[in-house]
Amino acid sequence: MKRHSFFILCALLGLLSATAADPGKLCGIVRDAVTDEPVAGAIVRTKTAFATTDSEGRFVLSRRAENDSVSFRCMGYETLTLPASVDLSCVRLNQKVSQLNDVIVAAPDIYAKGDTLVFNVANYADAKDNAIIDVIKRLPGIKVREDGTIEYQGKPINKFYIDGNDFVDGQYGLATNNISHKDVKAVEVMENHQPVKALEGIEFSEEAGINLKLKDDARSRWVGVARAASGVQPFLYDGSLFTMRMAPKIQNMFTLKADNTGWNPANEITDHDPDMMFSSDYMSALWPEYISADAVVAPLSEKRTRDNLSWLANAITAWKSGETSMRLKFDYTGDRLDYNSSVVTDYFSDKIPTFIQNNTLRTQNRNLSAQFYSETNKRSYYLKNKLTLSGIRDRSNSTITGSYDIGQRVDRKCLSAVNDLKLVKRNEKRLFSLISRTYIGHRPDRLLVSGDENAVQSVATTEFRSTTESGFGKLTRFWKFYLTAGLDLDYHRMDAALSGLGKFDNSGVYNAFLSNLSAKPQIDYDRNGWRMSLAVTIKWRHYSIAGQHNYINIFKRFSIRRQLTSKSEISGSAAYRLGSPQPYLNIDARVLSDYRNLFTAVNPDKYTQDVAATLSYRYRNPMKSMFFNVSATYNYCRSSIMSDQQFIDDFIISTYADRLSHNDTWYLKGGLSKGLGHSKIVIGFETDASFASASAMRDDAVIPYRQVTAGIKPYLKGSILRWLSANYESEYGFSKLCIDGESSIYHTFHQNLFATIITNDNVQFTAGAEHYLTRFPEGNITNLILLDASAIWKVNSKVRLTLTANNILDKRCYEYVNYGTLCRSEHRFNIRRRSLLASIQYRF
Question: Distance from the CA of 370 to the CA of which of 434, 557, 684, 753 falls in 20 to 30 A?
């Protein structure tokens, strides 16, 4: 008993010493004396040292005898000087009040507050804007992709907040597409944002977070928008209701929408947050989806190609209990799509005939999910638990003519449950983390092919996976040392059966058990603008499938970042990976992925080596509204197996051969964005280029190939005059494929111009055109011109009437070309016909 008491006493003393304040430090929080909000970017100075407060208003300075006072300065606040001997745990700054006679001082377009850039929405908005996303698209340094993903300086953001609240959890399309820009005071971009407060100053992020700061009159009351629309050719409708309330204790958001005008519910319901649970070498999916008969890649924007019938229902409720934030979320989406397309594929071989396919396809998707989320996010302690339940039902039916006359039907179901747990505890010298993910899912897929031969492919999988990772870190002033250990267990059962194809028929039940034991030491250095990190991950992997297999995997990564000035930084990384074969390669069943393609795996039992290096530079000057980024990446892959396409009878069998293969890839990416005319106009460009050299096999013969691509996308958008707003974007693309010394080249050019005439604050007219040009390898050229127009009448501050005409020339087809592995495909894709839509919108 005495021995146990001694150990308990030692543990208590250790905890007390770990949590005690360091007497050699001056530390505290700087807050606004009126709002009590943390003041970020304040300069804290003594005679011998200075520091800048972080996003939480915290500061740390060394305590010395000669430092008898501490001063606090920040733009917009009165300077405060205090004796170093007083309590500095909470310092409050008074806002500076200036009186100017007959002078109106306007808020700046953009200004920096520590690591946060603040965009004044009123200075960027114009009369034609409806939702806040219309303003975000014109902010310098920010790019909004077609699927709704927001990027800053070329990288997707890692968090999206509304008044500092993360209650949309990555589904920020719901907010950005519906919240009025008039309800938002500022868009705040938090550079190098670390969402977990306990990891601030420990794990550094290159991604930014975005916060919408609402106006005072938009808080604590219900705001929203209701919309109803109807149109012709064919009969069109669009109805939606969005409402939100951001109160201090509880936050709510509800969305209902039904539409057949080309809108995609995925753009609003998709979770854009990156998976930051585990380290970068974590694989979220270990097993492939075999059946892909209904996969469609649309070549144009979705409003041109989606012949849809779509539904969306979403409800989010968030509240706080003490220091713990909780959230309950329900999602339902339904999507029915009709496609008509054709493709002609040339395999660059006299032995393989040209393949022709005309496809009439209807897909139907239903997705229902529920989620409970709780989070405690403090500097000393972080705890997150997220439970997600989901059910998915996909069906498709297609009629195919051309080289074959057949029909295809696909039926998929998926039921899954995922629970994520993350715990981080820290003090000034130590860090502890515990991360866990548990997944269980069942997925029965079925493909039916009808024609001269009727075939049925069924693939039913059941999976249970448990991943746990625990880490310990020791923190010093400049150095940080970590040791992380993990255990990943996965049970996977696959019941596959193929019938109706004679010699290809097969069936079997495949049980797999995977275990993965890992250890990762890591060392970080941070001083005087230099940040360096070196990590080595060693894994023992065991596969119990088609025998027993054991592997040792190694992953090494070194990264470095240098803050050159307050406006620019350069970063680089290098990585090496020695990896084992993927587990699904040990399942030797032949699986029919569509009516023509079969996949059969091999058991390679051999390693793959990868080398990657990246160098990037970023520059931003908020005062001049200029943002620039450029990066270069090199990847090299060496594998003991090579992909092999075997053309047997009417089928293409994709497999692997026991042959050494190499793959070299260079990739360049960059962009420039500049605000002009007090940021009323934004100009810029994006550019990218890639060079790849590799080999593939066809009918057991090795064929080397090289592919080169390049593109540039200049743009101009904003208010040219008080009564004229314009948006111009263009994109030029070049692609070249070389096989056995023979080259094939095609060019693409796309441009669009939309101009809005604002006759007064209530009436505006918009007209625009899109132009698509494709120059095929043989030299022939196709052009497609699409014209649109709209008129808007703002009856008052709440009611808005709109009349829209799309595809006025009633163009029905788009032709384009692309390259695959050792092949070229020329496509024809049907687009939506001419339409006229009248709508009424009410904001409250």
Answer: 434
The CA distance from 590 to 641, in Å, is: 18
Question: Rg of the chain over CA atoms, in angstroms?
Answer: 29
Contact present, 437 and 419 (Cβ < 8 Å)? yes
Is residue 612 within 8 Å of residue 309, measured between CB atoms?
A: no
- By CB atoms closer than 10 A (0-12, 13-18, 19+), residue 152 is buried
Q: Which two tokens stand for residue 601?
A: 């795996």
Tokens 């230099």 belong to which residue? 530
| Mean pLDDT confidence for 16-24 | 42
Q: What is the DSSP string of 572-626?
A: EEEEEEEEPPPGGGG---EEESSSSEEEE-------EEEEEEEEEEEEEEGGGTE
Distance of CA 526 to the CA centre of its chain: 28
Q: How many other β-carbons are positioned within 10 Å of the β-carbon of residue 555?
A: 20
Whether 711 and 734 have beta carbons less than 8 Å apart is answered as yes
CA distance 803 to 635: 50
pTM of the predicted model over 0.85: no
**Quick check: 586 and 512 in contact, CB under 8 A?**
yes
State the Cα–Cα distance between residues 149 and 129, nearest whole angstrom: 19
In angstroms, rounded to a whole number, what is the distance separating the alpha carbons of residues 684 and 718? 12
**pLDDT, tens digit (0-9, with 9 covering 90-100), for 273-316:** 887 787 767 888 899 999 998 888 888 888 899 999 999 999 99
- Distance in angstroms (rounded) separating the CA atoms of residues 678 and 68: 44
Distance CA 538, CA 113 (A): 41
For the record, the structure tokens of 336 come out as 């029915």
Most confident option among 69-73, 100-104, 779-783: 779-783
Distance of CA 560 to the CA centre of its chain: 24
Give the span between the Cα atoms of 568 and 288, in whole angstroms. 41
What pLDDT sits at residue 838? Answer: 97
Q: What whole-number distance in Å separates Cα of residue 231 and Cα of residue 237?
A: 6
Residues 158, 164, 166, 167: is their CA dihedral positive or negative?
Answer: negative
SS (H, E, C) 303-371: HHHCEEEEEEEEEEEEEEECCEEEEEEEEEEEEEEEEEEEEEEECCCCCCCCEEEEEEEEEEEEEEEEE
Is the confidence at residue 382, as pLDDT, over 90? Answer: yes
- What residues does 173 pair with on adjacent strands? none
In degrees, rounded to 5, the angle at the alpha carbon of residue 193 between the alpha carbons of residues 188 and 197 is: 110
Please count the other Cβ atoms lying within 10 Å of the Cβ belonging to residue 498: 21
Answer for the pair 521, 503: CB distance below 8 angstroms, yes or no.
no
pLDDT in tens, 76-117: 788 888 888 788 888 888 876 544 333 333 456 888 877 889
Helix (H, G, I), strand (E, B) or coil at 53: coil
pLDDT bracket for residue 18 (50, 70, 90): very low
Residue 245 reports pLDDT greater than 80: yes
pLDDT score recorded for residue 14: 38
- Tell me how far apart the alpha carbons of residues 664 and 706 are, in angstroms, rounded to a whole number: 10
- Please state, in angstroms and as integers, the Cα–Cα distance from residue 180 to each residue in 184, 212, 529, 758, following that order: 7, 11, 40, 19
pLDDT for 19 equals: 36
351 in Cβ contact with 367 (< 8 Å): no
The answer to whether 790 touches 802, Cβ cutoff 8 Å, is: yes
Sign of CA dihedral 581, 586, 592, 597: positive
Q: Which residue has the tokens 């009040």?
A: 97
pLDDT, residue 302, reads 85
Helix (H, G, I), strand (E, B) or coil at 41: coil
Query: What is the rounded average pLDDT for all residues in the chain?
Result: 89
